[in-house]
């Protein structure tokens, strides 16, 4: 009887899970094991680049790569996971219900931007979280030139001063001037609830970030919560009013809601706790990868972040271990002790750090060149060559990007 490894999700973690599982099956020469991946479309959305211009093009096709290594793609969405029956249910591309069983499951459905219940947020704020949302923002910015020349038209508010908020804000002065004219008096304001920009990035790169944003003309409003968003701007908790026709929400993400269907502990962001093989503890046959997994990266207490850097290697490990477990082969514990950060700072450049303390190693245009390589080369799938794909899927090939 044939067996099935089922991956749900085609992001960085899902894609690499499927390719890594295919590598194990290929080496074991097992024709009786099917690797199937369910996702809405056979494309990798290059989410780390959605703050850039042209977000609608930030996709990479996966059909040829999957075909090259024998991964079966199932177009659809999963609505329910039944761990007691080892099956999932959902809808295919035509909206028809389906049920699919599995012997091993890798959940890799990623995360979504968290939108709290702030008045007007859902109706009036843009985001760069998904391709269609980032494309809608780009269209809006281009159309600003057709609106009356007012301070509100010329002002963008970025709510959230974390990694995504900083990268987005650093891009916006140039994007606004491209839409409104180089002589336009543009204003970009970051509203951050903490008392420092990039609170999760720590003090290491902060002076560089502050210098870059200041030279780009970005204003920081720190220690303020957004209390209300409307069509004409933002009001903060202390009553400060910022008139703006463009509000971009970037404050925080949460793991896919499907994690709640796995009967296992989760962290505050909804991520499933996994062991060193990325198996969900107490739920036989289920693995979690990417943004839905909270995994130890090393032996000194660091854990994975919701980042492309960790998702790619989590995927390689989850796919390998799910397949190895199924076939009774040796598993390879996930380990990724090296951690780096490369933060895009728009026209100013970028900042590159190493280690969990984020020691600055490079900044300015030199770091910008590195960021460009990461964004345009290193995080993309390999070409659809069978041997190249299988070699790249080896979990011992740790990629830092």
From TrEMBL:
Record keyword Oxidoreductase present: yes
UniProt GO molecular function: NADH dehydrogenase activity
Domain FAD/NAD(P)-binding: 4-313
Metal-binding is among the record's keywords: no
Pfam families from the UniProt entry: Pyr_redox_2 (PF07992)
Catalytic class of the enzyme: oxidoreductase
EC number from the UniProt entry: 1.6.99.3
Sequence similarity: Belongs to the NADH dehydrogenase family.
PANTHER family: NADH DEHYDROGENASE, NADH DEHYDROGENASE-LIKE PROTEIN RV1812C
Name used for this protein in its record: NADH dehydrogenase
Originating organism: Paraburkholderia bannensis
């Amino acid at each position: 009887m044939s067996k099935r490894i089922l991956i749900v999700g085609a992001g960085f973690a899902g894609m690499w899970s499927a390719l890594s599982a295919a590598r194990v099956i290929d080496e074991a020469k097992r024709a009786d094991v099917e690797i199937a991946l369910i996702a809405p479309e056979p494309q990798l959305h290059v989410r780390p680049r959605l703050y850039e211009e042209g977000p609608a093009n930030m996709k990479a096709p996966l059909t040829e790569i999957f075909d090259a290594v024998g991964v079966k793609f199932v177009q659809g969405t999963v609505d329910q996971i039944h761990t007691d029956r080892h099956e999932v249910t959902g809808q295919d591309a035509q909206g028809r219900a389906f049920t699919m069983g599995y012997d091993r499951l890798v959940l890799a459905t990623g995360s979504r931007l968290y939108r709290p219940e702030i008045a007007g947020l859902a109706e009036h704020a843009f985001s760069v979280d998904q391709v269609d949302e980032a494309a809608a923002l780009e269209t809006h910015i281009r159309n600003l030139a057709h609106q009356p020349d007012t301070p509100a038209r010329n002002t963008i508010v970025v709510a959230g001063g974390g990694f995504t908020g900083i990268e987005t804000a650093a891009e916006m002065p140039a994007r606004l001037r491209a839409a409104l004219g180089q002589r336009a008096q543009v204003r970009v304001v970051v509203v951050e609830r903490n008392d420092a920009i990039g609170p999760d990035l720590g003090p290491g790169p902060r002076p560089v970030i502050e210098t870059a944003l200041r030279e780009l003309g970005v204003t920081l409003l720190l220690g303020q919560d957004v209390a209300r968003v409307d069509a004409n701007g933002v009001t903060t908790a202390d009553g400060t009013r910022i008139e703006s026709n463009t509000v971009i929400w970037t404050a925080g993400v949460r793991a896919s809601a499907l994690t709640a269907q796995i009967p296992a502990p989760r962290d505050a962001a909804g991520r499933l706790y996994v062991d060193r093989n990325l198996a969900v503890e107490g739920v036989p046959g289920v693995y979690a990868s990417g943004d839905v997994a909270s995994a130890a990266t090393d032996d000194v207490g660091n854990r994975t972040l919701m980042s492309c850097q960790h998702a790619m290697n989590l995927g390689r490990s989850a796919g390998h271990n799910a397949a190895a477990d199924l076939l009774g082969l040796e598993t390879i514990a996930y380990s990724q002790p090296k951690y780096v950060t490369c933060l895009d700072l728009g026209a100013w450049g970028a900042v590159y750090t190493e280690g969990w303390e984020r020691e600055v190693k490079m900044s300015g245009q030199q770091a910008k060149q590195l960021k460009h390589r990461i964004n345009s080369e290193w995080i993309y799938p390999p070409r659809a060559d069978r041997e190249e794909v299988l070699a790249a899927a080896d979990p011992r090939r740790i990629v830092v990007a």
